[in-house]
Amino acid sequence: MSDLPSCKINCDGAFSAPEGTGGGGGWGFVIQDLPGDVRGSGAGRLRHVASALQAEATACSAALQAAS
């Protein structure tokens, strides 16, 4: 069993492709410890995003970078 503290990460991405634009969206995440206290969070805007999957991946990447 690891001696490292555990945490929970929730992340989400959003994607919108209005007609005639390159698409846009956003991302966000929150990091909580076992009692549920917030240990970190972040959010941002995405421009020229190609898909919902890309927005979700960006959110996960940002959360993992913040947690490490």
Automatic annotation (TrEMBL):
Q: Which residues form a coiled coil?
A: none
What are the protein's GO molecular function terms?
nucleic acid binding; RNA-DNA hybrid ribonuclease activity
What residue stretches are annotated with the RNase H type-1 domain?
3-68
InterPro entries assigned: RNaseH-like_sf, RNaseH_domain, RNaseH_sf
Identify this protein by name: RNase H type-1 domain-containing protein
Name the species this protein comes from: Hordeum vulgare subsp. vulgare (Domesticated barley)
Its taxonomic path starts at: Eukaryota, Viridiplantae, Streptophyta, Embryophyta, Tracheophyta
